[in-house]
């Protein structure tokens, strides 16, 4: 039997797996909204999706942290340190960027 739908998270991970460059835009959009209600959780979910697309165990190994710690740090209630965040981004082949906000 063919499924008519699938979970959103699975679809996003598949998109990221099929097109790794999509991670740039996906995380940038999540970072843009990180200061809004629910934005922090959405950013952690986006980073978790990127890590899942590349393989959580492989990302954890490249980041130098235990896989279980990576799952915890990127969970909806996670609170990764800046060290962990930067290590995960680096392990995923990404860098954190900064730009000036536009004021009205």
Can you summarize this structure?
This protein is mainly α and 104 residues long. It has helices spanning 8-18, 22-32, 39-54, 56-63, 67-73, 82-91. The protein is globular, with a radius of gyration of 14 Å.
Describe this structure in words.
With about 100 residues, the chain is mostly helical. Helices cover about 60% and strands about 0% of the residues. It is built from six helices and no strands. Helix 2 runs antiparallel to helix 3 (about 40-55). The termini are far apart. The model has no long low-confidence stretch (mean pLDDT about 90).
Q: What is the averaged pLDDT score?
A: 89
Assess the beta-strand content as a share of residues.
under 5%
Count of DSSP strands: 0
Uncertain residue segments: none
Order of helices and strands: HHHHHH
For the largest beta-sheet, the strand count, sense and barrel status come to: none
Distance between the termini: 54 Å
Shape: globular
